[in-house]
Amino acid sequence: MTRELAHLSDEALVLLAARSEQSALAELYDRYGRPAYALALRVVRDEALAEDAVQDAFLSLWRTASRFVPARGSASTWILTLVHRRSVDLVRREEHRRTDSLEAAPEQGGGGADEEAWLRLQRERVQDALTLLPDQQREALELAYYGGFTQSELAERLGQPLGTIKSRMFSGLSRLRELLGDPGLETAWTHGTSTT
Amino acid sequence: MDTRDLHDLTAAYALDALGADETEAYEAHLAQCERCRDELTRLSEPAGALAWGAAPAAPPAALRGRILAAAAAERTNVVPLRRPWLFRATAAAAAIAACVAVGLGLWSASLDRSLHAARSARAADARAVEILADPASRRIPVAGVHGMVAVDATGQAALMLKHLPQAPAGKRYEAWVITPGAAPRKAGMFDGGGSTTVVRLERSVPKGSTVAATMERAGGVDAPTEAPVFTAQA
Question: Is the N or C terminus of chain B more exposed, i.e. has fewer CB atoms within 10 Å?
Answer without folding.
Answer: N
